[in-house]
Write a sequence for this structure.
């Protein structure tokens, strides 16, 4: 542990989480920062998800760092390339890019209590040491493929939506898409006009509501540049709207009924065939799965070359997909839009804390972390976008800024008094009990989704408003921690 007031910080991942915490620390004067990135570029999910139409369903003025408003967003709901450019530019502007080691995947990390150091190993065989370890690897970074009988026998091309095969030309092909979540509803309208036939396999109908998108006009962008408060007002409006929607997700049925009404109105307007409309009607409470914003999805599903198949998939055959009812849908290409392994936080990384305790075992009954940031027995490890910090509605960047602010205070303490901080088990347990209790009353407890793990636990979502998270993470309370000298 250096006595000089410059603890070394090792950050894993360069999405908004990794870059965001690095900026926060650098702005506070902590320069001994290293970011390890498995890929050759920054961007996290915005680098990985390159499927046609990939973009953000949170308005860009809100989906930005608060200290780095961007008057150049081309649209209200920006596409991935613009979001990745913004992150790249911001990382350059704050001098973060030079701290990044690309093509360096972390495989393991272990805490050495005597030295007060984390030792981090990479797939290239290197070892890094740091006083502070910040995994910022996201919740939606590990694609989930279903295990369907016969999958390996398929003779055509197949890929996951997050690993889009751009060499595979879909023009004139028969395409099967499995899944109807946030990813599918963005790319289905883009590929539908060019394919010969599209079979869309829907297991559960999503709630789809209109997307109030707009291409910003030159005068609007000029206004944002001249009077930044006008863009701030738009940010504030969507912040407020999401807080309002979250009251519904927490259990207020009057609000969720509004979502139901909006979705029904969109279906009635865009889907003329009553049978198709019935198939597209969800049968679970709104918000339980993520509500999707799209004004072009239903028209694409209603197009003449699209078949919506709601029967259970029995197997993949060499020539297509067969349902349990024995209907065979021939396909040249299968696209799995089947989501991510969201409940395996930190993915394949092996993380050992005090006395060699394994984080995977510690989380064998579900991932948990105090304020989504610290884990008892894993001192000086601070998570970005950790357990229970995801949102049903809202900007994750807002949450990441709160986590970065909290971590900055911890690093400041460590810089002042060389030490390691280990969250007290009773504090962490009490917090987790509260989160479980509150989530059990939320709408997310009422159906299966990627928010829940196989045991029905919800390790992903924050149970309250983002304003509550802001308040509770504003000040690091040292009384919540065992503070030890190495
Ligand atoms: P997802 O929401 O988890 O959707 C996966 C889809 O695949 C669901 O429709 C699911 O059906 C279906 N599925 C999974 N396994 C299946 C199987 N064995 N057979 C048939 N169907 C199966 O995944 P996603 O669409 O990739 O989105 C994940 C999350 O990423 C989003 O909720 C969102 O938070 C984020 N995302 C965000 C944006 C954005 O604009 N901000 C865009 C894309 C993604 P069930 O519903 O029945 O499980």
């Amino acid at each position: 542990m250096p006595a000089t007031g410059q603890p070394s910080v090792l950050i894993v991942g360069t999405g908004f989480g990794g870059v965001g915490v690095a900026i926060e620390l650098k702005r506070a004067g902590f320069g001994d920062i290293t970011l390890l990135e498995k890929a050759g570029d920054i961007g996290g999910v915005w680098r990985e998800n390159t499927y046609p139409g990939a973009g953000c369903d949170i308005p860009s003025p809100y989906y930005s760092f608060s200290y780095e408003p961007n008057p150049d967003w081309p649209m209200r709901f920006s596409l991935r390339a613009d979001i990745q450019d913004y992150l790249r530019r911001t990382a350059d502007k704050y001098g973060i890019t030079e701290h990044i080691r690309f093509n360096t995947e972390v495989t393991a990390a272990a805490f050495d209590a005597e030295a007060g150091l984390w030792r981090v190993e990479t797939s290239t065989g290197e070892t890094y040491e740091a006083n502070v370890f910040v995994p910022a690897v996201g919740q939606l970074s590990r694609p989930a493929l279903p295990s369907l009988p016969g999958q390996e026998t398929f003779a055509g091309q197949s890929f996951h939506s997050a690993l889009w095969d751009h060499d595979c030309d879909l023009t004139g092909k028969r395409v099967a898409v499995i899944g109807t979540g946030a990813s599918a509803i963005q790319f289905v309208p883009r590929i539908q006009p060019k394919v010969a036939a599209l079979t869309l396999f829907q297991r559960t109908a999503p709630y789809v509501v209109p997307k109030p998108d707009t291409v910003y006009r030159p005068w609007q962008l000029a206004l944002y540049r001249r009077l930044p408060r006008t863009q701030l007002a738009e940010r504030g409006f969507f912040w407020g709207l999401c807080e309002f929607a979250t009251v519904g997700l927490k259990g207020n049925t009057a609000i969720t009924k509004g979502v139901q009404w909006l979705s029904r109105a969109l279906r009635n307007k865009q889907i003329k065939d009553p049978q198709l409309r019935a198939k597209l009607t969800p049968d679970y409470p709104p918000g339980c799965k993520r509500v999707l914003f799209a004004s072009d999805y239903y028209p694409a599903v209603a197009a003449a070359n699209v078949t919506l198949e709601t029967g259970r998939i029995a197997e993949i055959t060499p020539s297509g997909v067969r349902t349990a009812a024995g209907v065979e849908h021939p396909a040249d290409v299968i696209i799995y839009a089947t989501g991510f392994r969201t409940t395996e936080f930190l993915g394949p990384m092996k993380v050992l804390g005090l006395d060699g305790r394994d984080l995977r075992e510690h989380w064998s009954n579900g991932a948990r972390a105090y304020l989504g940031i610290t884990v008892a027995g894993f001192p000086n490890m601070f998570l970005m976008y950790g357990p229970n910090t995801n949102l049903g509605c809202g900007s994750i960047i807002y949450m990441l800024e709160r986590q970065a602010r909290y971590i900055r205070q911890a690093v400041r303490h460590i810089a002042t008094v060389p030490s390691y901080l280990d969250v007290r088990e009773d504090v962490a347990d009490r917090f987790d009990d509260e989160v479980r209790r509150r989530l059990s009353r939320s709408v997310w407890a009422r159906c299966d989704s990627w928010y829940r793990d196989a045991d029905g636990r919800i390790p992903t979502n924050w149970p309250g408003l983002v304003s509550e998270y802001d308040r509770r993470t504003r000040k690091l309370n040292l009384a919540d921690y065992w503070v030890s000298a190495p």
Notes: Residues 55-57, 140, 146, 178-184, 186, 201, 203-204, 289-290, 313, 337-340, 450 surround NAP (CB under 6 Å).
